[in-house]
Amino acid sequence: MSAAPAHDLAGHTVLVTGASGPKIGSGVCDALHAAGARLVINDLNDEHVGRTVHRYPGAVGVVGDVSRPDDVARMFNEAIDRAGPLTGLVNNAGVGLITPMLDATQAEFDRIVDIDFRGVWLMSQAFARSVAAHGRPGAIVNVSSVHAGKTIGRYAIYASAKAAVEGLTRACAVEFGPIGVRCNAIAPGYVPINRDLVPPDYPAPDASWIATHTNSEQVLQRVIEPIDCGWAAQFLLSEQSRCITGQVITIDAGLTARLYNGDMSARIYADRERQATLRAEGQDAR
Questions:
Q1: pLDDT at residue 284, as a whole number
Q2: CB 43 within 8 A of CB 67
Q3: Residue 47 and residue 108 in one domain
Q4: Collapsing DSSP states into helix, strand and coil, what is residue 17?
Q5: Where do the coiled-coil regions begin and end (predicted)?
């Protein structure tokens, strides 16, 4: 059998939720469009969806809230009516929450769970039903986070929701596999926004913080960009990942692979060298 073109998505139609912002969704759309996929752009705001659709010739837009069952059903009907049967779904829509767990409100908890977890379930269920109805294989890519496995203070609810997404990813892989649907996830580390998609006065993160994070916390000293996440999603939607399901690809430049950050590692090395020098000189290294 001849090899399929690398990550080629020509003839595929992929719905990307939360796709109109300058964050990870922008990289996903860029990568999938470049690979030949027809995009179905989802977000909450009609104007934002329209602007995003304009960037990708052939794309269509569907406005709706992924956490509302009626919206999800309508979005799939509109998408299929306007773009044909879907072959891929990227569950990118999500919101964050940075607050101590002791101070978090019920409303804050519900909002995170509704969008970051319930929305993924509703969209995945609708997609699998659509694939089964049309008799074509399909693939789902869920956007998780490094917080699903390791987190910091004030991220407890967000981290829990992302951990639930990874559990759901594995469960969907098991249940949807017999009908030809694969399900995987990507877990990005810190990904700055695409500044090309925001106005000049859009609040920018502290550049010194990003530099410290990149150079001290990550193994690879380069900033992760939205397109890095897009390329991973592209692979997981392509024929070249046809035997991969139930997996999570971490895109964090080695953040979660190391035991200590660069500063702590340097201190440990320095102390080991100090002790070795003292031993060589016949002194007590304690």
A1: 65
A2: no
A3: yes
A4: coil
A5: none
**Owning domain of residue 79:** 13-255
Same domain, 32 and 105: yes
Candidates 56, 155, 158, 190; catalytic one: 158
Q: What is the 3-state secondary structure (H, E, C) of 131-158?
A: HHHHCCCEEEEEECCHHHCCCCCCCHHH
Say whether both 244 and 265 belong to one domain: no
**Active site (annotated) includes residue 158:** yes
Share of the chain above pLDDT 70, in %: 97
79 and 104 share one domain: yes
Same domain, yes or no, for 247 and 280? no
Is 5 part of a structural domain of the chain?
A: no
How would you classify the pairing of strands 181-188 and 60-63? unpaired
Pair (198, 281) in one structural domain? no
245 and 198 belong to one structural domain: yes
| Residue count (the chain) | 286
pTM above 0.85, yes or no: yes
End-to-end C-alpha distance for the chain, whole angstroms: 65
The SS3 call for residue 45 is: coil
What is the per-residue pLDDT across 110-141, written as a single tens digit (0 to 9) for each?
999 999 999 999 999 999 999 999 999 999 99
* pLDDT at residue 282, as a whole number: 84
pLDDT category of residue 5 using cuts at 50, 70 and 90 = low
Buried b (16+ CB within 10 A) or exposed e, 215-246: eebbeeeeebbbbbbbbbbbbbbbebbeeebb
Q: Per-residue pLDDT tens for 53-73?
A: 999 999 999 999 999 999 999
* Mean pLDDT, range 49-53, rounded to an integer: 98
**Total tally of structural domains belonging to the chain:** 2
**201/277 same-domain check:** no
For residue 94, give both structure tokens.
């999500």
Report yes or no on 132 lying in a domain.
yes
Tell me what the mean pLDDT of segment 205-213 comes to: 90
CA angle 151, 152, 153 (to 5 degrees): 135
